[in-house]
Structures are given as structure tokens and as C-alpha cells.
UniProtKB/TrEMBL annotation:
Listed GO MF terms: pyruvate dehydrogenase (acetyl-transferring) activity
NCBIfam families linked to this entry: PDH_E1_alph_x (TIGR03181)
Subunit structure: Heterodimer of an alpha and a beta chain.
Organism (species): Virgibacillus massiliensis
Function in brief: The pyruvate dehydrogenase complex catalyzes the overall conversion of pyruvate to acetyl-CoA and CO(2). It contains multiple copies of three enzymatic components: pyruvate dehydrogenase (E1), dihydrolipoamide acetyltransferase (E2) and lipoamide dehydrogenase (E3).
Protein name: Pyruvate dehydrogenase E1 component subunit alpha
Reactions it catalyzes: N(6)-[(R)-lipoyl]-L-lysyl-[protein] + pyruvate + H(+) = N(6)-[(R)-S(8)-acetyldihydrolipoyl]-L-lysyl-[protein] + CO2
Pfam family, one: E1_dh
Enzymatic class: oxidoreductase
Needed cofactors: thiamine diphosphate
Keywords: Oxidoreductase, Pyruvate, Thiamine pyrophosphate
Length: 354
């Protein structure tokens, strides 16, 4: 099956052109923008893990290693397209235009950070695995009924493809030719379960065959290839030619979440050695150097600007007004159940700010 679904690459592992067809489109400005967003979300992710370790935010979901997959896909979207992310795709959301302050408030456990994005069509991150795939199909169908040309992208992991909702989402999208791109990030693990134990399918892309839609396998460490593959799938969707399943083969460098200890199920030394070789930021840097569009002064000032932006946003998060305890209960159901109403009352009577 790997021969039938070859890995699409625009850059080789050494950063050199593998496929120069898209050279014009991947001009200096575009490549610099892809690099900027990857560096921004890498820095944000490092700070996220550090903040959690220092007890300054709650559980955090790292995505280091998946920056090319997340940025390449997000930057291929049109202004009015819809994004359905999971808990791990906050890098993609930020690259698409999610509000940084709200994102940090979300990780800080604040209700204000859970409100829908004001800037872009970004749905709240799905914590249940794959339940958002039928929703994404529905949103895509709604856009068609409205007569718009907006497409939808739905993110999910390798583990999600074992869920019933994956099947339902893809099948209905295929039957109704919904303008949706199913963007899988195969990072090799569903928490501690390696993909080889998750399924007997050699690839995830081949699962598209069951629904009669195209399946594409792309190197998820190659930001240029991801950008091109997603853009082509979105264009196809917008032409009314239906959905595509894309498998971006990638790697999660860190833990599943900060509540996970990956050393229990994989060899950290091996991972650390491997990440040096496959790091998507190093790959695009090599590519840019090869094209003589790398400028270390530009990179340093970018790095400084991003650090400052993040430090200021973190300080705003920490100086944000104190949380209201009843927020924990008020947004579960439209009308609280008696159990929730009782818990709310108990906390407030113990001195919580209601
Ligand atoms: C419906 C459902 N079942 C189980 C879980 C518990 N759970 C949280 S993350 C996870 C693994 C998901 O793996 P994958 O889809 O590969 O995505 P990744 O975390 O690697 O991005 C599971 C089983 C859940 N959140 N939702």
C-alpha cells in the first residue's frame, strides 16, 4: 500500500528540492511566512510546557514535531474557511489567526479563553476523539447549501481513525460531496499505543478507498509539501469535487500531554536522537539556505519579536481578573441539572466567588 500511496515531498530530508514544480508558488515571501509561523508556534509550545511545569497553567498539550503539518495546513486555508481542530492543534489555530491571549486563557482554565474565535471560523478544540468529524462534514454541507465557496478542514490523529465517528464523517462527506479536507496527523502514537498496534492498515491514506474519495500521503515534516497538498485538496473541494483524506506522516517529540510520562512506553534517547534529524524547522532552514533566502539577522530579529510577543501575552494572562468559581458550573448545560446546581451552591457557600 505504501507504493500506492507514496509520500509526497517537495523537499528532501536535506532540504534540497525534491519536486520543483511548485517553485514559483513557494516564493521567498511564502517560505518566510511558513518559517515565521513555525518558529512562533515552536516558541509558544516551549513556553507552554515550561508554564505548566512551573504551575502557572493547568495541563498542557504539546505539539513539538508537528509544526510543519499544522502550519502548512493552516496557511493553505482561505480567510473564510472553517477549521475544526483537536486539543493538539492550537499551533494550527494560532497560525490561522486565533487570538493568542484567548489561547493562553484557555490553558489557564479560564472560560474567557473558551469562547469562539472572533477573528476566524475556528471551532472549539475537540477533546473527544473524532466526534468533530461529522460536525465538520455538516458545516461543509451548510456552506454548500448557502452557496458559498468556503471549505472546511478537520484535524485528527491516527488513533481517531479507529473511531466510528471517523467512518460516519467521511462516508457522509463522500456521499454529499461535502467541501471538506480530512487532515490526519499520523504522529505514530495514540497516547501510549503505537500506530502498528492501533491498526493493521499499512497507511492511513488508504482508508479513503473505503469511502470512494482520494487519499494522499504527505511528508508531515515537509512544510512545503503539506502546504501544497492541502491547498490542492481545498481547491478541489471548492470546485465541488468533494472531500479528500490527507495523511501527514509526522512525529510527536514530547509527551502526549503534560500529564503523560512517555518514558514509560518509548525510548527517550532514541526520540531525542531522531528529532535532531527530522526536525521540520531545521529542514526548512536548510532549504532556505540552499536557496540563499536565509538571513541570520532576519531570523534573530524574528526570534526576538516572537519572544517579546509571547512574554507580553503571558504577563497579560497572569494579570487577568480573578476567575469566577461558578464559571465551572454555568456552562455545562443550558439549564443546570440538580447535581450541578447543588455542587455550585456548595462551593459558593464555602466562600467561592459566585
Ligand atoms: C471518544 C474518546 N475516547 C477516548 C478518549 C481518551 N483519549 C484522549 S487522547 C487519546 C488518543 C488519541 O490519539 P490520536 O487520535 O492519535 O491523537 P493524538 O493525541 O496523537 O494527537 C485518547 C484515546 C477521548 N478523549 N475521547
Amino acid at each position: 500500500m505504501k507504493e500506492k500511496y507514496p509520500l509526497f515531498q517537495v523537499m528532501g530530508k536535506d532540504g534540497k528540492w525534491q519536486d520543483q514544480t511548485y517553485e514559483k508558488e513557494l516564493n521567498e515571501a511564502k517560505v518566510k511566512s511558513l518559517y515565521y509561523h513555525m518558529l512562533r508556534i515552536r516558541t509558544y509550545d516551549q513556553k507552554g510546557v515550561a508554564l505548566q511545569r512551573q504551575g502557572r497553567i493547568g495541563t498542557y498539550v504539546p505539539f513539538a514535531g508537528q509544526e510543519a503539518a499544522q502550519v502548512g495546513s493552516a496557511l493553505a486555508l482561505g480567510e473564510e474557511d472553517w477549521m475544526f481542530p483537536t486539543y493538539r492543534d492550537h499551533g494550527a489555530s494560532l497560525a490561522f489567526g486565533a487570538d493568542l491571549d484567548m489561547m493562553l486563557l484557555h490553558w489557564n482554565g479560564r472560560i474567557e479563553g473558551c469562547l469562539p474565535s472572533r477573528k476566524k471560523h475556528i471551532m472549539p478544540a475537540s477533546i473527544p476523539i473524532a466526534t468533530h468529524l461529522p460536525h465538520a462534514t455538516g458545516a461543509a454541507m451548510a456552506e454548500t447549501y448557502k452557496g458559498s465557496k468556503n471549505a472546511t478542514i478537520a484535524y485528527f490523529g491516527d488513533g481517531a481513525t479507529s473511531e466510528g465517528d471517523f467512518h460516519e464523517g467521511l462516508n457522509i462527506a463522500s456521499v454529499f460531496k461535502a467541501p471538506v479536507v480530512f487532515f490526519n496527523q499520523n504522529n505514530g502514537y495514540a497516547i501510549s499505543l503505537p500506530v502498528e498496534k492501533q491498526m493493521n492498515s499499512e497507511t492511513i491514506a488508504q482508508k479513503a478507498e473505503a469511502y470512494g474519495i482520494p487519499g494522499i500521503r504527505v511528508d508531515g515534516m515537509d512544510v512545503l509539501a503539506v502546504y501544497i497538498a492541502v491547498q490542492q485538496a481545498l481547491d478541489k473541494a471548492k470546485r465541488g469535487e468533494g472531500p479528500t483524506l490527507i495523511e501527514a506522516v509526522t512525529m510527536r517529540f514530547g509527551a502526549h500531554t503534560t500529564a503523560d510520562d512517555p518514558s514509560k512506553y518509548r525510548n527517550q534517547d532514541e526520540i531525542n536522537q531522531k528529532r535532531e534529524v527530522v526536525d521540520p524547522l531545521i529542514r526548512i532552514e536548510k532549504h532556505m539556505k540552499g536557496r540563499h533566502i536565509w538571513d541570520s539577522a532576519w531570523q534573530s530579529s524574528l526570534s526576538e519579536e516572537i519572544g517579546e510577543e509571547l512574554d507580553n501575552a503571558i504577563s497579560r494572562m497572569e494579570n487577568y481578573q480573578k476567575p469566577v468559581v461558578s464559571d465551572m458550573f454555568d456552562y455545562v448545560f443550558e439549564k443546570p441539572t440538580w447535581t450541578i446546581a447543588k455542587q455550585r451552591q456548595q462551593i459558593i457557600s464555602r466562600g467561592g466567588r459566585g
